[in-house]
Design goal:
CATH superfamily: NAD(P)-binding Rossmann-like Domain
CATH architecture: 3-Layer(aba) Sandwich
Structural class: alpha/beta
Number of domains: 1
CATH class: Alpha Beta
Largest sheet: 7 strands, parallel
Strand content: 15-25%
Distance between the termini: 35 Å
Length: 253
Amino acid sequence: MSTRFATKVVLITGATSGVGRAVALRVAAEGAAVVLGARGKEAGDQLAEQIRAEGGRALFVPTDVTVEAEVAALTQAALTEFGRLDAAFNNAGAVNAFGPVQDIEEAGWRADIELNLTSVYYGLRHQVPAMVAAGGGAILNNASNLGVVGMGSVAPYVAAKHGVVGLTRAVALESAAQGIRVNALVAGAIDTPAFRNSMGATPEGEAAIASLHPLGRISKPEEIASFCAYLLSDEASFITGAALAIDGGFTAQ
């Protein structure tokens, strides 16, 4: 395993399961000090302890990313504990509202926008100044494949994720001169606990979703994590303002 993050401090939201957890473990194994933000304190403490037990550096901060004060506190915790912030993965997100748009109540709309889009704005609002102070950095926002294509029955989520792509591009342009790169992750279906609790909970459901991907399967969190680690590292130093797909061909159709 490389040590390309040996001097880096990496902040990750939605860090205690699925892709967030896989990214945390990957960059920590490559030398990063990781700052983990998520709602679940028990899972967060356990992940931080695992990373420390494996010789890494980790701090968990209970965080509701829909509350700006908590997002600000998460960023400040990174600065207080490790002295700087070099990279961030704004990963927290979920679908709250399902059904045709005429049946979705305003509360469901707001819940999806706040969790999947406004939370990214909060992250950027506090991460960018911290990275300016560090002399530059890299930010990756999880837009999912529904940030670039449409899908029925989840319109608020699709709208939010499309917003993440637009926000990513705008902030990439604003921050480029300050040495900060900002990209959007476009991922297909991933074998995570959230997936297992949804349509993938049955063999039939998993097969149906796998069939939407030309490679004929869903991805493993570790596959996504390797791509995220690359984008957050200095090896991707000429990539910014991009929505980058790792989706088994889903968005190529």
